Amino acid sequence: MGYLAVKGSEEAIRAARALARPTGGRQTVEALATHLPLVLDEIQGEAGVYEPHLAALAFTQARGDVAEAVFLLRGYRSTLPRRAPARADTAELVPDRRISSAFRNVPGGQVLGASNDYGLRLLDLDIGERPDATPDTGIADEAGPTAGTAGVAATASGAGGAGAQAPAGGAGTGPLSKVIEHLRAEGLVAQPGPAEPPQDITRVALRFPASRSARLQALARGQSGAMTSFAYANLRGYGPFHPTLAELRVGALPLTVAHPRTGNPVCIGELPVTEAEAIGQKPDRDNGTLGMGYGCVPGRNERKAIAMAILDAVLSGVNDDAPFDSPLADEEFVLAHVDGVEAAGFVEHMKLPHEVTFASDLDRVRTIRQHVRGPA
Amino acid sequence: MSRLGELAGDATGYSFAFLDEHTKRELRRRTLKAVALPGYQVAFGSREMPLARGWGTGGIQLTLSLVGPADVVKVIDQGDDASMNAVNIRALVTKTTGVRTTRDAGEATLIQTRHRIPDSPVRPGAIVVLQVPFPEPLRLVEPSDAVTRRMHAERDYSKMWLYLYEDIVRYGRISLSYRYPCMVNGTVLMDPTPIPRHDVAKLHQNPTLYLFGAGREQRVYALPPYTDVVPLDFEDHPFQTERAGAPCARCGSDTSYRTEVPGQGWLCSDTAYCDARLGVS
Predict the structure, then answer these.
(1) Residue A275: inside a domain, yes or no?
(2) Which of B54, B61, B74, B270 is within CB 3.0–4.6 Å of B216 for a Cys-Cys bond?
(3) Is the same domain home to A205 and A352?
(4) How many CB pairs under 8 A join A and B?
(5) Inside any domain, residue A122
């Protein structure tokens, strides 16, 4: 009955919206930007817009619903013109954090940066009693020394420094060589393929088979939880890829555009990104190289970047196992379903009135029941 | 009605070794069952632990269910006592128990490890707890747990044998690197965890009790002392351990498990072993 009113009554819609009205304002927006940057990074990554203030507005308006905030920001994105494609080379990225799981140490050192990976996950029951603290951007927690812009900890390796190599100057001072290049130098990992003109799936519809740039964009905009679940299913045996994380880096990526008049490259700013490179376990039978997967997402979202690298590898046909059918190796299955806005929208559309189609269903059900049960 | 309050204990503090006594008792019972059935995966009600889920939460539950005030604990990751994950797990053990820790495998009564078995001899009577990401050796060939349980019940390991055979056809070698599947007591196929084949070779008729804890997958299994542990292989393609590129650049060992560090050469992964050979601690 109330349901019909939703359809019929503007007054009821107004009343429902009033009950769900956001109450947050300036203080909430400021608190989000200051204290909860990771949720804003998640929203910005999935929305495909990097502007922390707008993400804070969206999250406040959505009353803490991440999917809704992403949707609001995507909607706003539709109003923005596309000015120019920017070029970026992640070898130029200045890492705040850079770790490799493939080696105990790597040239330049293992740079922990800010991370809670190795903290005890004990719920801090007093956190609500303390006043807000001023965040020290980029400063590591107690896990490492806090000199410079990031804590630097060579995987302190046994007394005797079997691998300890704290890099002089620490992180944040300049680019570090990429771990994957060490493997490429030995020919263990194939050289990257030729660059193709990027396709923007927000301007040209995603169609299958997708180009690699379209695939990477779709994954970079994917919903963090869905990506994590798909990648986890792969790791647990429902997929063929058994990765080692060659490198994970977090830092500011310089963006360059061609000057509209001169055509010369101009750096227009930096985008914070998380980048992951995962390598496979078994060599390709033809050329003996290891397959790899690539992940790069705006902001700080290590879980999603790693998941993206895993999914990219599987979709690239990197197959560490005897071939078997897995939906994770089907790019339509993965790319069409990792988008959080599409998924949330359609799942929630079940709330819309469906009485017309349901009546049609019931007509068939009643007819079939009569047929199978016989006349009453 | 005060009984409930007594059972709950002091709400503000944590128990010795973090877990409540009921949980520890359940874990020990499951562990005893696992010891009685070598290689068999026993399900247990894995708890959430204050470590990242899947970063050793099964191993730490076993360690905390076994540790007593007189124990001496060693924790390693990749063979390294100073590896960050080992440091973190050791911190939880010491914070919640106050027990003494050591780097010396010969001194520890309880060793928790990820990816390695120490190259130094383990103290007689000590227990080694391995962290387990995937308890199911058949996961490589069959993703469903319901199916693999039936395969174990019927001792149907043909898919695994076929995998090895196809590997030889495809690569000319068995390509399995770590997590090398082994037959235990000639009856059960077991996943030895992602230890290198170098360590797999040590498990056969080993005098130590090995416990395997998978927190995320909620399984515990065990190798009691002097159990037959035989890696799957073929007569004409025998099981092979890893070959390092050079002796340890630091201590010169040519029998330890060594990994390559870019720019530094091959080094012992067991850093306590390496230090002991050099007489440093």
Answers:
(1) yes
(2) B54
(3) no
(4) 98
(5) no
